[in-house]
Amino acid sequence: MEKIINEINSLKKEKNAIILAHYYAPGEVQALADYVGDSYYLAKVAKNTDADIVVFCGVGFMGESVKLLNPEKKVLMPDMSADCPMAHMAEIEKIEEMRKQYEDLAVVCYINSTAELKCHSDVCVTSSNAIKIVKALPNKNIFFIPDENLGRFVAKQVPEKNIILNKGYCPVHAVVTAEQVAQQKAKHPNALVLTHPECREEVLALSDVIGSTAEIIAYAKNSDKTEFIICTEEGVAYPLELNDPNKKFYFARESFSCVDMKLNPPEKVLHVLKTEENQVEVDEAKRVRAMLPLDRMLEMAK
Ligand code: 13P
Ligand code: SF4
Q1: Architecture of 2-83+261-281 per CATH?
Q2: Quick one: which of 15, 61, 95, 201 has the most CB atoms within 10 Å?
């Protein structure tokens, strides 16, 4: 592993490259990355970097978002097949139908979506900024795509808006049940439950804190409590344990893993840095349109 890391480091210098990794990427990749964070943080880093090459250790929509914001840079993905199923779970025809139905409609698009869906949206959000942005929009009627669970969570926090939900879901978070969480609570009665809003309503109802991966990690770090039940992908174990080796973290499910995020091992990072294969490409007309809601998000979330 040391040899791989040394090679990665010298190629990074030689090519003016940086490595970005999401908290769900494998721990060894988080350890060697220049920046690790949630989707919102990584989008901001990508917007501000002066590197020539960005290697993105995450899933397709994340690499695509970096390319939308940085057309002049080479954006490389360690594995082009790393894709988020939820990113495809909305239909353009449905968006158009909603726009006809509501004159003042804002289509709010979770960043976990394809560039194609972003092209038909008014503003993007991440789980870190969705409530703030939906509250600040002038529109009363909101079509929230693609995630139904995040949309419902936002709707509860912003009751003054009419939020129309769409039937998308994360196959990793939406399978956690209230029963699984209740079982962990019974085993660890002093633990706080920290949950990502992509989980189902019944799971959110049993949670003490609901937030993005970065918010979950920050909460655990700043809390006086020493035990936590974690309802999000198991990659967050790496930063949680690094911050607090003496605290205890129990995951709500035995296997809480996003297979696509795990397609980013150090060997593949080295391979793309060497070969510059797996470049993310987005057609220019599509890029210009899809960037609008992303830029609006970065502006509104400031
Ligand atoms: P964050 O918004 O917390 O980065 O989560 C992204 C994601 O893919 C959740 O499943
Ligand atoms: Fe997509 Fe879910 Fe994986 Fe996040 S955890 S990338 S939403 S499949």
Answers
A1: 3-Layer(aba) Sandwich (3.40)
A2: 61
